[in-house]
């Protein structure tokens, strides 16, 4: 590079000719700089096709591993007699305030739906388990991000630029993920794939394992059994006792319970009006997902749970 204003010049000569049509200089307040090298990319970089998947970053703070507690009688996460005091109620409304769930669609429009009065019939029962499946005793803050067909985990406080863990997926690319630092059992990380498949895993268990595949994972919507549309966003229900919501490109949201079998049979009625908001619930108590919310006829790009008023 040469600065023609102050006469400074690099000692290394250029061996590569500039490509036709490329600008060979740029101007700054200090002078005019002439480019001697064309930017090249090493062959080890990811293929261009991977750039079509948006990279998301999740901040995960691992607390100290809790001490084993005395086993207690199983309790129901969802009440069958008092309506919804659980996933949908905590996410969308309840208590002295109300909760609004905002959606951003593929056409650029957005809507905010208050459905605290619509979810009163959401009924499901399950037993909660407080047994932790992880045996990693560490703590710290980690960055979780997806690139191409892999999930990478980096130690936020480490000086090492390389991730401490990579998890590869053979059939589809991960596109969204979320972490729950207040999870009562080991499964605190959920991952949505481009194929529509969803996994819940223990972050501690992934960090301890030396392999490049998921370990101890719970698999939901396997092979698109419920929805073959790609996942676009995923989120834990605040205070939902292990419930989480997955948004899909077909305009639907599905509510899952991580304490239930991921292979549980779920069937929902056909959506008659694609432009109309609707809520459908699973017919059986063992079904997973437990509910479907149809928001719009286009893709839901993101979702946000917002607390409005005292809760």
Task: Give a structural overview.
It is a single chain. The chain is mainly beta and 311 residues long. It has 2 domains: 43 residues, no CATH class; 257 residues, no CATH class. 4% of the residues lie in helices and 33% in strands. It is built from 2 helices and 20 strands. The strands form 5 sheets. It has a 5-stranded antiparallel β-sheet with strand order 15-16-17-19-18, with no helix packed on it. Keywords: Repeat, WD repeat. InterPro entries: WD40/YVTN_repeat-like_dom_sf, WD40_repeat_dom_sf, WD_repeat_creC_regulators.
Please provide a brief summary of the model.
With 311 residues, this protein is mainly β. 4% of the residues lie in helices and 33% in strands.
Biggest sheet record = 5 strands, antiparallel
- pLDDT < 50 stretches: 1-18, 69-103, 111-136, 307-311
Number of spatially distinct domains: 2
Number of strands: 20
> How do the strands line up in the largest sheet?
15-16-17-19-18
**Helix fraction bin:** under 10%
Keywords: Repeat, WD repeat
Region (Disordered): 1-25
Biased composition (Low complexity): 1-16
InterPro entries: WD40/YVTN_repeat-like_dom_sf (IPR015943), WD40_repeat_dom_sf (IPR036322), WD_repeat_creC_regulators (IPR051362)
Features:
4% helix; 20 strands; single chain; mainly beta; four-stranded antiparallel sheet; disordered C terminus; 33% strand
Topology:
Blueprint: E1 2-3, E2 25-28, E3 31-34, E4 57-62, H1 87-92, E5 93-94, E6 97-105, E7 110-113, E8 140-147, E9 150-155, E10 165-168, E11 174-179, E12 189-193, E13 198-201, H2 203-208, E14 218-220, E15 231-236, E16 243-248, E17 252-257, E18 278-281, E19 291-294, E20 300-308
Antiparallel strand pairs: 1-3, 2-3, 4-8, 5-6, 6-7, 6-20, 8-9, 9-10, 11-12, 12-13, 13-14, 15-16, 16-17, 17-19, 18-19
Biased composition (Low complexity): 1-16
Keywords: Repeat, WD repeat
Region (Disordered): 1-25
